[in-house]
Design brief:
By secondary structure, the chain is an alpha+beta fold. The protein is built from four helices and five strands, in the order ββααββααβ. The chain is rod-shaped.
Length: 140
């Protein structure tokens, strides 16, 4: 994934903290289509630490690349696993009664959300998603 960011500070180890505009999960500009994303989510920025081989300085507008495969894997865990566990629990319990199916579906969904939170913490600690500044660009 390639994005434009702004360098906010350079760290002592040579890496840089950059401010990246958060993109929608589907990867397009929701503010233009008037779809389901809120304006707050479209305009929110996230601070990340990026490798800085081009030696960008604070205030520079830069191009940042991240590992697309790991981002997609994280999206699967966050978005799909809770719903898959919900349906698995529902269908396993639906044979007994609809109420039991709904309860097991809720338990499955909660377990999926818990797994997503744990995976997020593990990825943050292990820096599973890496960012790299690839170019210094014009001011945006």
């Amino acid at each position: 994934m390639v994005q434009t960011a702004k360098v906010t500070k350079v760290l002592p180890d040579g890496r840089a903290e950059v401010s990246v505009r958060r993109q929608s999960a589907c990867g397009h500009d929701c503010s233009k289509c008037g779809g389901g994303c809120s304006e707050m989510m479209v305009s929110a920025t996230v601070a990340v630490i990026a490798d800085n081989p081009v030696r960008a300085l604070p205030g520079d507008s830069v191009t940042v690349e991240s590992s697309t495969g790991r981002i997609l894997g994280a999206a699967v865990v966050v978005y799909l696993v809770p719903f898959l566990l919900f349906f698995l629990g529902y269908f396993l319990g639906a044979g007994r009664s609809e109420g039991v199916g709904a309860a097991l579906g809720g338990v499955g969904f909660a377990a999926g959300v818990a797994l997503a939170v744990l995976a997020d913490r593990r990825m943050r600690r292990g820096r599973a998603i890496t960012f790299r500044i690839t170019a210094i660009g014009p001011e945006t």
